[in-house]
Write a structure and sequence with these properties.
The protein is of the alpha/beta class. It folds into 2 domains: 132 residues, Rossmann fold, CATH 3.40.50.2300; 94 residues, Orthogonal Bundle (Arc Repressor Mutant, subunit A), CATH 1.10.10. It is built from 8 helices and 13 strands. The strands form 4 sheets. The chain has a 5-stranded parallel beta sheet with strand order 3-2-4-5-6, with helices on both faces. A 4-stranded antiparallel beta sheet has the order 8-9-10-11, with helices on one face. Strands 1-7 form a two-stranded antiparallel ribbon. The radius of gyration is 20 Å and the shape is elongated.
Length: 242
């Protein structure tokens, strides 16, 4: 389930935000990765300070979630190196320590906000949204209605319509169509679709993607010019009917 029901934030060009999660506890890093991906963001994970600095340099994230305690260094040192690369990236500290001194130290070192463990995923997402919105470089979609050609999908009511006629979908079909509609005219590979819609539960079984694409076609394209297309050897793309 999504961590929030708020409108999605994107980069000004409409592409997904990129978040770097730095935490040496695999379970926590994975939970954060999944929650942030559900927000529609691209997520990279690093388990050490050294890997975090390298990833930040290569990926140029829009925000960083940074654990204070790391196996090879501390979060303050990592933050200092991140700021040397780019001084405007928002940084949200994670820590198991809850003292006023630790909070002040983190914020004084240049961190933008602070969440203590144990935390709720909703809180982390909300804090990140607030930080990234403050940068002024982001776009918030106030309309939860996705539209591609004559196909519409309401992310709040889960209503889908093609040329004004309601289309009834299962929960999985809805998630698959939402992913396609959030990326119109973009070819999405089976691996990308598996990762986004099913996470890793199906172990790379690409045939499940083919099956659900066929279900969608029968419901969305039936009686209309096709919108869902197969790009042989590459994946699938949804675009307005010609």
């Amino acid at each position: 389930m999504p961590a929030t029901n708020l409108p999605p934030l994107t980069r000004p060009d409409g592409s997904p935000l990129r978040v770097l999660v730095v935490d040496d506890e695999p379970n926590i890093a994975e939970l954060l990765r999944m929650a942030l991906r559900y927000e529609g963001w691209d997520v990279d994970v690093a388990g050490t300070g050294g890997k975090a600095v390298a990833a930040a340099k290569a990926q140029r994230p829009d925000a960083v979630v940074l654990d204070v305690m790391l196996p090879d260094t501390d979060g303050m040192s990592v933050l200092h190196k991140l700021r040397e690369q780019r001084d405007d990236v928002p940084v949200l500290f994670l820590t198991a320590r809850d003292s006023v001194e630790d909070r002040i130290a983190g914020l004084t070192a240049g961190g933008d906000d602070y969440v203590t463990k144990p935390f709720s995923l909703e809180e982390v997402v909300a804090r990140l949204r607030g930080l990234m919105r403050r940068t002024g470089a982001l776009v918030e979609n106030e309309d939860n209605l996705l539209t591609v050609g004559d196909l519409t999908l309401d992310e709040d009511s889960h209503e889908v319509r093609r040329a004004g006629t309601e289309v009834t979908l299962t929960a999985t079909e809805f998630e698959l169509l939402r992913y396609l509609m959030r990326n119109p005219k973009r070819v999405l590979s089976k691996a990308q679709i598996l990762d986004r819609v099913w996470s890793y539960d199906f172990g790379g079984q690409a045939n499940i993607v083919e099956l659900y694409i066929s279900y969608l076609r029968k419901k969305v394209d039936a009686g209309h010019a096709p919108m869902i297309h197969t790009m042989r050897g590459a994946g699938y793309v949804l675009k307005p009917a010609e």
